[in-house]
Amino acid sequence: MDIASIVVAMALAGAAGGLIAGLLGVGGGIIIVPVLEFVLGLLEVDPAVRMHIAVGTSLATIIPTSIASARAHHKAGAISMELVRYWSPYIVVGTIAGALIAGRASSEVLYAVFCVVALLVATKMILPLDDKVLAADVPRGLAGPLIPAGIGALSAMMGIGGGSMSVPVMTLCGRPIHQAVGTSSLFGAFIAIPGAIGFVATGRGNELLPYGSLGYVNLVGFALIIPTTILFAPLGARLAHRTSRRTLGLLFGAFLLIVAGRMALRAFA
What we know:
By secondary structure, the chain is mainly α. The protein contains 10 helices and 2 strands.
């Protein structure tokens, strides 16, 4: 594949990631990770580090995407700052732990984690459970921190902004879908920043890394994807507030099923 094709592929990945970030409250990694992994394969990057680079680079690109998306949702009054204050410290701790674990895990482990989590969340979002809740609000007390910490850890291992898990968790706990989407967009920043730093640290010195890599974060991919994610995230946020709750859930679930199937082929084939 020539350099022009790579540039186009990265730009399209960024556009899709930014649009989905604003529309569904995710950091775009649900699309960016599999696209980056595919492009790195075409570039003949060693399979042992291919998924690590895709995840690490995706987390880096989520930083500006989540900020742009969160600003748009904040203007619409769709972010629960009370929940942000409660969950954010635990999300950061979980993210750091997840990034350190992922940096030392095999590619197959990362593929499997991505597949299983995406499949579970997609099932919840596609089934007609819009009015189903498990609790009146998010859990408090001793068990309360486990949920955001788990979201942070798994998100770091998947290279996503956490919306794939935080959105359904919040809706199951009685939060409106648009508030869940908006709040999760801000959580993306709390996941992406420490997550990207963790992948830079664990990948330093690896001789299998391609040109332009800072640890497991590839700066070439980062530079190409960032502009289009920033451009398209606000558009997705505006579309989200014109879309019904059920439609958002179906769109979310459909994307996750597609991604889960592809990751299953990589993990278990």
